[in-house]
Amino acid sequence: MRSFDARGRQPAFTILTIGILLISLLAVVFPFLYVVMTSFAPREEILTRGFFLLPHRWTINAYGYLMNNRQFTTSFLNAVHITVVGTIVNMVLTSLMAYGLSKAWLKGRRALNFMVLFTMLFGGGIIPTYLVVKSLHLLDSYWSIFLTGAIAPFHLIVMRSFFQNLPSELEEAARIDGCGEWRLLGRIVLPLSMPAVATFTLFYAVQNWNSYFNAVLYLNDSDKWPLQVFLRQMMNEANDSMENVSGAFEYSPTVKMAAIVITALPLLAVYPFLQKYFNKGMLMGSVKG
């Protein structure tokens, strides 16, 4: 007979599951740990010692170098601006459109839902989108990034389904008390939808923080480039050095690793506070289509 544990599972299956999870954990943690440790090592140790996890001598020279680098600090502040303002624009537009499409009495609701679904299957293309942005005089403006990715169709559909799952009795009681649409959305619907709001806020924040292609496409002024563009240029340097108008300066391997750590740190700091909303937000929003 097969033996089972207290939860009715086979011990061999449990051991296999734990083993797979541990291997997956190491595959994710080990590279990041190497990047973090390397960022605190001297440049000479990396060039002479080869692969290691713990440096013989610890130093923060790489981080000090980046903090004194005007191009890095400017791109970091640009990334913060794009993330904060872009996420607010994303959530406001997504919430308003999802709330409207969740109402069965909305005229043309079926056609609008089809248009949203159509954009998930077919895109406008790079050149037509660029021509639209240019005709609106949005080139070299952050609004070219905010508006071209203002609403993600998948996020919109899931949030619309989340709104539809809310009890209709709450809406009827609020209307009897004289609550209008704006108060209904701000006082009842959004507070009850915090799992979905928090989940997609983080999704949009990650999207804006990692914005690269749109920034390269629409922003010609290098002083407006976000952090990902600067990081990409740094990683592409074959000889660990780079030229600018003020002279030559070197991006050593430790500086590159430190830049990667600083780039990933904001999202790593925010994610644990919103993680508890993920499963609830995604599952409740996908029950009803």
TrEMBL record:
Annotated transmembrane regions: 12-37, 76-99, 111-131, 143-163, 184-206, 255-274
Protein name: Carbohydrate ABC transporter permease
Keywords, in A-Z order: Cell membrane, Membrane, Transmembrane, Transmembrane helix, Transport
Cellular compartment(s): Cell membrane
GO cellular component: plasma membrane
PROSITE patterns: ABC_TM1
Signal peptide from the UniProt entry: none
Membrane topology: Multi-pass membrane protein
InterPro entries membership: MetI-like, MetI-like_sf
Positions of the ABC transmembrane type-1 domain: 76-274
Primary location: membrane
Entry keyword annotation includes Transport: yes
Species of origin: Cohnella zeiphila
Membership in a protein family: Belongs to the binding-protein-dependent transport system permease family.
Biological process according to GO: transmembrane transport
Highest taxon of source: Bacteria
